[in-house]
TrEMBL record:
Domain Septum formation inhibitor MinC C-terminal intervals: 115-216
HAMAP family: MinC
Pfam short name (any one): MinC_N
Domain Septum formation inhibitor MinC N-terminal: 6-74
Quaternary state and interactors: Interacts with MinD and FtsZ.
Family: Belongs to the MinC family.
Taxonomic source organism: Photobacterium atrarenae
Gene from which this protein is expressed: minC
Protein name as catalogued: Probable septum site-determining protein MinC
InterPro entries: CAP/MinC_C, MinC, MinC_C_sf, MinC_N, Septum_form_inhib_MinC_C
Function according to Swiss-Prot or TrEMBL: Cell division inhibitor that blocks the formation of polar Z ring septums. Rapidly oscillates between the poles of the cell to destabilize FtsZ filaments that have formed before they mature into polar Z rings. Prevents FtsZ polymerization.
Domain of life: Bacteria
Keywords on record: Cell cycle, Cell division, Septation
Amino acid sequence: MTKSAELKGSSFTLSALHLVDGNIQQATDFLKEKVEQAPNFFAAAPVVIDISQAGDTIDFVALQSGVKDAGMIPVGISGCKSAHLQAQAKQAGFAVMNAARQAKAAEPEMTPTKIIRTPVRSGQQIYAKNSDLIIMNHVSAGAEIIADGSIHVFGTLRGRAIAGASGQRQAHIFSHNLQAELISIAGNYWLSDKINPEFWGKGVVISLAENNLNIEHLAL
C-alpha cells in the first residue's frame, strides 16, 4: 500500500509570549510593535502564549483574535494546569502545550560548516542546516543569515543573524563589526535598539545565559 503521508516527531523553535497579567490588549499591542519593528522576522510567525501568570479569567477568543490582528499566528498555550482553562483554550482553537509531557527531541547530527565567501546582499537569506555558518564578507541590511549552530561574520553584520535556529542553546554569534538589525540565539532575540552602544560597530561574541543574550567584546 502506497503511503499518502507520514506523522513524525520533530522540533521547532517558537516565540513565546508571556502574559504577566490578564491584560490582553496590552500584550497584543506589544506584539504588534515587535512585528512593525521587524516584519521579516515576526510577521506571520507562530507564537505560543504562556498563561502561567495571567490569572484564572482569560478571554481566549479575544487573545487569539488579538494575536492574529498583531500579525502573528497563535498556535497554542503553555503554563496552564487548570482543566477548566484548558477546555476553554481548546474551544477557542488553541493547542494545549505541556512541556512536562513532551519527549526530548534527539539532537540533530551536525554537518560540515557552511562557508560563504561573497557578500550577503539585501533580500538574501542564507541557512546553514545542522551546521555552523561562516560569512567571510559583509552582511547587508535587509539580509538574513540563519544557522542551527553558531554564526561567524568576518565583515560588517548589518542584517539579521539567527543562530541556534533549531534550539541549540550553546550556539554563539561572532561578528567583527556589529551593526545588526536583529540578533537571535535559540529564539531569544534583540533588535538593534537593545544593543548597548558600547558594542555597536565593534568586534563581539554573543552567547546565551539563563534565557538572556550576553554580549562581550571579541578579543582579536
